[in-house]
Amino acid sequence: MTKIKICGLRRTRDALYANELKPDYIGFVFAPDRKRYITPEAALELKNILKPDIKSVGVFVNESPDTVKKIARSGVMDLIQLHGVESEEYIKALKQAFPEKPVIKAFRIDGEESVNRALKSSADFILLDNGIGGTGKAFDWSLIKNADRPFFLAGGLTADNIEEAVKKYKPFAVDISSGVESDGVKDFEKMKSFINAVKNCSL
Asked: What is the DSSP letter of 120?
């Protein structure tokens, strides 16, 4: 069964939506220059609302390791996602500091070289995306047809194209943010449609 991550939760109602719809993961964006940014304090309040079987992912973009570690120690996240140009040394240091928190490293896929770089990452999971996150556009999925390790697929996913993504490319998980929003906020019906579509084509 393909797992589901809904990224960019910011409001109490977003957490309540997640509790009802039960994605496997939700994401908190801790990058201050991103429009879905949430403070660690506000995220912790939402984390405390979430059902315990929904794993929270803290998303960082070129953040200082000390800041990541400080936020990770607060208990706000179960996994750490890196969406910048973080080095292998950076990834390995986080894995050593938090062996209980898997690290997801995001990669912008724009050709075979970027795919090969992603596949060699020491992160626990790789996330394959179109850009820096939240672009709402898909990359050329044919580039990942031979991916030989578990990956999160992101970028331009919708309830309409998810069947092709899941059945043809078999991602470990799919990750969506803007695709389940209306006017910049999470939309319950869009979340429901997407999650149901993933579950239906994963059977």
From this structure: T
